[in-house]
# Entry
Amino acid sequence: MAISLTKGQTINLDKETNDLSTITVGLGWKVKKKGFFSKLTSNNDFDLDAIAFLLDDSGKLRNIGNEKLVGGDVIFFNNLRHPSGHVYHSGDNLTGGAGVEDDEQIVVKLASLSPQYARILFLVSIYQGMSKGQHFGDIERAFMRAVAAHGKEIARYNLADDSAMNNVRTLVFGEVYRKDGGWKFRALGEGYSSDVFIEVLKKHL
# Structure
């Protein structure tokens, strides 16, 4: 049974009972319904993007890639596969879903990931959220979950309807990080008003 996390909570990813050769971090969301005519308004189409930063033990990004962040340690819709081949993105989902299944996934081959990577930070941002007047306060349900190699869900962090998410457009959901020869999973829930994840990235350069 998966462990339901609260903000700031940390758990061990138990490699004795879970196959952690690969871990999938899934993100899902459901937008609040705003009446019958909401379908006629394109502004109600939320495009949330899953992003991962591969960081060293100092919390810094070693390789930013080119000027468009391609070929570096940031995994997102324009850079779906890490140069090592050990981290990859499922692809951009432009509309989200029912908030039950994963809308976007980032897969990490933990067993073969280079030791230079000590933390992987997972974010979600609302594409063009500023110009469309969108924020996480309009999200009815969002979650991040960790799934072991054979499909077993081992941890989940749910973001329910929360007024504190008003005017938040980029959310640092959580992270996996190395500890005592293994890996831990931590729910963070840090929000930013900007819809540009580069503002968060600057803290890790």
